[in-house]
Here is the input.
Amino acid sequence: MASSHQVEMFYDGDCPLCMREVRMLMRKDKKDKILFTDIAAPGFDAASYGKTHDDLMARIHGRLPDGTWIEGVEVFRRVYDAIGFGALVSLTKLPGVSHLADLGYTLFAKNRLKLTGRCEDEVCEVPG
Here is the structure.
């Protein structure tokens, strides 16, 4: 990851709802603090990152400049902080709010194929 980035965000470019969020983040990332990596892009190789495609599909992942992996709500906290939404990030760390954010994201992640109309052969479970 380039040193100017605060976080690399691994996202599913085939997910319409995810892409709305990613496009908004790209517009707001005026200082190029986020490196966006589409795990659905042709030629993307999860193994080159030491992950499996199923791992990356199960939950959103991010990687910090030192190589540390982060997952779930923490990825959103880092990318929102990078675009200057620190106050919003602080709210998600409050007791109660933090647990609700984690629960909400976990429920979304498990059901996002169904929620975005991407079930295959009536299978709507995200791998992992």
